[in-house]
Design brief:
Elements: H1 11-20, E1 33-43, E2 50-61, E3 65-71, E4 76-84, E5 87-97, E6 102-111, E7 114-125, E8 132-138, E9 141-147, E10 169-176, E11 180-182, E12 187-193, E13 197-202, E14 216-218, E15 221-222, E16 226-228, E17 238-244, H2 253-270, E18 279-284, E19 290-291, E20 296-300, H3 301-304, H4 312-330, E21 335-337, H5 343-361, H6 367-382, H7 406-423, H8 425-438, E22 442-444, H9 446-457, H10 462-470, E23 476-482, E24 487-494, E25 510-517, E26 523-529, E27 533-537, E28 546-548, E29 558-560, H11 564-571, H12 578-593, H13 599-609, H14 615-631, H15 635-656, H16 670-686, H17 690-703, H18 715-726, H19 728-740, H20 744-754, H21 760-767, H22 777-789, H23 794-803, H24 805-811, H25 830-846, H26 850-882
Parallel strand pairs: 1-10, 17-18, 18-20, 21-22, 23-29
Antiparallel strand pairs: 1-2, 2-7, 3-6, 4-5, 4-7, 5-6, 8-9, 9-14, 10-13, 11-14, 12-13, 15-17, 16-17, 19-20, 23-24, 24-27, 25-26, 25-28
Helix pairs in contact: 2-4, 2-5, 4-5, 5-7, 6-7, 6-12, 7-8, 7-10, 8-9, 9-10, 12-13, 12-14, 13-14, 14-15, 14-16, 15-16, 15-26, 16-17, 16-18, 17-18, 18-19, 18-20, 19-20, 19-21, 20-22, 21-23, 22-23, 25-26
């Protein structure tokens, strides 16, 4: 046992430590000391507020030193020392930056070059939000789980908490007898120790960074192991388990049945076996999203615990999310970014691959269109002047958080997909496999990935094309005009919306592929547009055909066609693939927001696409009208937009039917079920169809006492109408479900519905859930954002939020605190902008990632003000002209 250093009159060290604290590493740790192995023991009892641990870290010392920089946040280190073959050296530990967890070890005498082992005994306090080692309660029981990405392993143990430091770990967890304890590797043995506790020891991990360790402790229910059958890449079965809190076993069935198919598809793609000796899928209350811990993925309960017969929506979310996290086992865990500036490649690739694998698994769920819609949505952020490139320098710890946004995930996935489309799937796959083989169990940079792509495909030009998209922000706008001799003339500039001060003179190396929409098989032609202008030669005999400037919707760019060419393309929308129709819709909406298209043109394309057989395509411009309704429109124009939505989609919903009885449409295709789900919400909550609302309110009355009495696929929309129509009594009943139900789907549906409170008292009652520690963090912030997004509840919700700002920030994990700046994104007036700046400006700019998030939000407001000034009056005029037979002026204003 080590001596406690607190009792030693270590005056010289204390003075030196205080001096060191004034000059410490704000980003990467100095390179002189690097870990080579951890032996970590944690004593975890989630019923207690604190945990304790001991960590022994083998290190390599490059030069004689008396000080070592490392990480530890909120930990009380009771004893610290370092040992070499020459003996043990006492040390003093100090946390010099509590905000980011930078810590300092000062040694009594120098460590010589070579190897040494650091010894630290400590204790810490469990977090109450999903960061570090956190505890939560479910069904009366206490549990502890870990969430370490990006920089929260330092809240659980002192160490070198950077992705570039990959080492083996020997882990032991001391837990109460009767508690289960799970980590990354299989349990090697369990030994009873003093105090009625059990010491669980696990196999040594392959090299891992600290952020990929995982722990789950408590009265967990663990499924029997399922053997994932051997594959071409793996000769032995792979053990797979599902883990949840007590009483959740009946909801394991779908995950146990379907996860093996996702794993085998990934092994087939990567050409190598699953990298770890087992895989546990762990469902944790309070977890936001999912985390790709090596061999022990931890996800939110509603993703994983979907029962034996999940809805198509649950199936899609399970497939996409679990495939994403499983893809990380190779791309992120087996090969890890050397530093956080390349985390984009981790997440972009997994986002793209998760969609790809989920679609191969269940092509009926429409996953690729949803992924493309998300990428197109990210273009709205990427178009802002207050932007960032995908690959952005991360000079310090406070700059890590912004790397986890839609630019990383959705733009990055779009760029990955564009490169795959340009190179061809086989050539791209060769590059991926080469990259993994070169850096197995190591780290890699994006530059090394680009090189593997070039080497694997034989296309060296792809390196600069890749860099042009990841090293600068913005969305290319490619204008396409008929050229001479069967060519198309191309011109690129940066897209910018009305009101934007962004410069248009950026240049990309754009893989442009066009589709000729003809009666026979559509012809596809590609070129790499490297200059401001270029040409693309069309196949012989196709001049004068209808051109789609983004074949398969695979290019990360917007396009402009002029005059007759755009009209002809819109008229042929029913002959376009869903992806091509989606980018047509996005381009039309973007042209409207840039002042290059009128509302009448936008609405005309919306009417055409509303009939498209693909639901995501059919709804995309309807959702843009909904956004105009909520952000730009005055009360009269909102009423006109509500009627316009009924005109666009009312007949289609009527044909589908709106029966809310559970299982009524279970034999239909997933596409029909999911289309009905979205149309019911759009026409009841925004279109405000009276008959539909009355029926849904009655269904809400019946089902709030028995959630199984309504179709789960429609449930949160049914309850949202109930909240609007029934007010405070419905809010109170749903609040109880949001915190007390053991069914994660019911909790999630209740929380989403609470975002539709209208009366002042109902809004305040719904928002009170934000401060309730029993409520899921992700869900309650969703309530806040939805209430502020809706015109009827915005003022009251904003007033409540600004009055409870400290409590709200306390519930948000530090890494994502800056995202609260986005709560003002629906604002569209100078007064609202000033109120946001006054209430949040200074605090958000100090928060992790908050400075960029604040500037983006303010710019969105400015752009909205400019757009409203330019087109606000014209929306009502255009709608009246589109439907002269209707007396729009007589519509009741809601």
């Amino acid at each position: 046992m080590l001596k406690r250093l607190g009792a030693i009159p270590f005056l010289a060290l204390a003075v030196a430590a205080q001096a060191a604290a004034t000059d410490y590493p704000h980003g990467r740790l100095p390179a002189g000391v690097a870990p080579t192995h951890y032996t970590l023991t944690l004593a975890i009892d989630p019923r207690e507020p604190r945990f304790s641990g001991r960590v022994d870290i083998a290190v390599r010392v490059a030069a004689p030193t008396r000080e070592i920089w490392l990480h530890g946040q909120g930990l009380v280190v009771e004893a610290a020392s370092a040992s070499t073959r020459a003996g043990t050296v006492a040390a003093r530990y100090a946390e010099v930056d509590p905000a980011t967890g930078v810590a300092h070890l000062l040694l009594r005498r120098e460590l010589p070059p070579g190897t040494a082992t650091l010894h630290l005994r400590y204790h810490g306090t469990f977090q109450e939000s999903p960061q570090g080692l956190f505890r939560t309660r479910a069904g009366g029981d206490w549990y502890a789980f870990s969430q370490f990405e990006a920089t929260d392993a330092r809240r659980a143990f002192p160490g070198f908490d950077e992705p570039g430091f990959k080492t083996p770990f020997d882990v032991a967890i001391i837990a109460r007898a009767g508690d289960r304890a799970i980590s990354n590797l299989p349990e090697r043995r369990a030994v009873r120790v003093a105090g009625g506790r059990v010491r669980h020891e696990y196999a040594t991990t392959p090299p891992l960074p600290t952020y990929l360790l995982a722990f789950a402790v408590g009265p967990l229910e663990v499924s029997d192991s399922v053997a994932v059958a051997p594959s071409a890449a793996r000769g032995a079965p792979l053990p797979l388990r599902v883990v949840g809190t007590r009483g959740q076993r009946e909801r394991f069935a779908f995950a146990l049945q379907e996860a093996p198919a996702l794993i085998r598809r990934l092994e087939d793609y990567f050409g190598t076996a699953f990298p770890y000796p087992k895989i546990d899928l762990i469902a944790a209350p309070m977890q936001a999203g999912a985390m790709e811990n090596a061999g022990a993925i931890i996800s939110a309960e509603d993703i994983l615990l979907v029962g034996a017969s999940p809805t198509p929506r649950q199936q899609a979310e399970f497939g996409v999310t679990i495939a994403h996290e499983l893809a990380h086992q190779w791309f992120g865990d087996l090969v890890t970014p050397a530093w956080w500036d390349d985390t984009w490649l981790n997440e972009s690739f997994a986002e793209w691959m998760g969609s790809r694998v989920a679609n191969a698994w269940r092509p009926d769920l429409g996953v690729p269109q949803e992924q493309l819609a998300a990428t197109l949505g990210a273009m709205a952020t990427d178009a802002l002047k207050a932007g960032r490139p995908i690959h952005q320098p991360v000079p310090d710890n406070r700059s890590i958080g912004p790397a986890f946004d839609e630019i990383t995930y959705e733009k990055g996935a779009g760029v990955i997909g564009m490169v795959e489309s340009y190179l061809g799937p086989e050539a791209f796959q060769r590059g991926v496999r080469l990259h993994l083989a070169r850096h197995r169990h190591g780290t890699a940079t994006a530059a090394e990935f680009f090189q593997a792509m070039a080497d694997g495909s034989g296309e060296p030009a792809i390196i600069e094309a890749f860099r042009s998209f990841v090293d600068q922000p913005g969305v290319p706008l490619v204008t396409v005009r008929p050229g001479a001799d069967g060519t198309l003339a191309l011109e690129q500039r940066r897209y910018r919306p009305l009101g934007s001060a962004v410069r248009e003179d950026a240049l990309w190396q754009v893989p442009v592929c066009v589709r000729l929409v003809t009666a026979g098989d559509p012809a596809r032609s590609c070129t790499l547009l490297t200059d401001r202008t270029g040409t693309l030669r069309l196949p012989a005999g196709t001049a004068g055909g209808i051109v789609h400037p983004n074949a398969d919707g695979a290019g990360y760019y917007r396009f402009a066609l002029e005059g007759e060419a755009l009209a002809r393309l819109a008229e042929s929308a029913d002959r376009l693939s869903p992806a091509e129709a989606l980018v047509l819709a996005d381009g039309t909406g973007a042209a409207f927001e840039a002042g290059a298209a009128s509302f009448a043109e936008l609405y005309g394309v919306a009417r055409t696409l509303a009939r498209h057989p693909d639901r995501t395509t059919a709804l995309t411009l309807g959702l843009r009208l909904e956004d105009l309704h909520d952000r730009l429109a005055d009360a009269r124009t909102r009423a006109l937009l509500e009627r316009a939505l009924l005109d666009l989609y009312g007949e289609r919903l009527q044909r589908l039917g709106t029966d809310t009885a559970p299982g009524r449409y279970a034999t239909e295709s997933a596409e029909r079920q999911l289309l009905r789900r979205q149309l019911v919400g759009l026409l009841a909550l925004t279109g405000r169809d009276p008959a539909l609302r009355a029926a849904l309110a009655e269904a809400a009355d019946r089902s709030v006492a028995d959630p199984s009495a309504v179709e789960p696929l429609l449930r949160w929309r049914v309850w949202a109408v109930g909240v609007e129509e029934r007010g405070l009594p419905m809010v109170e009943r749903l609040k109880a479900l949001a915190v007390e139900s053991r069914d994660p789907a019911v909790r999630g549906d209740a929380s989403r519905a609470l975002g539709y409170a209208v009366s002042d008292e109902a809004v305040r009652a719904a928002l009170a859930l934000l401060l309730d520690p029993r409520a899921d963090v992700d869900a309650v912030f969703g309530i806040l954002f939805q209430l502020i997004s809706h015109p009827a509840s915005r003022a009251t919700a904003w007033q409540w939020f600004t009055g409870h700002l400290d409590g709200a920030l306390a519930r948000m994990p530090d890494m994502f605190a800056g995202e609260l700046a986005g709560v003002g994104s629906p604002f569209c007036s100078r007064g609202e902008r000033d109120a946001l700046e006054t209430a949040l400006g200074a605090r958000m700019r100090r928060a992790n990632g908050g400075a960029l998030a604040m500037e983006r939000t303010l710019e969105r407001i400015d752009n909205c003000i400019a757009l409203k000034a330019a087109v606000g009056e014209g929306i009502a005029t255009a709608l009246a002209a589109a439907h002269p037979e209707r007396d729009y002026l007589g519509i009741e204003v809601h």
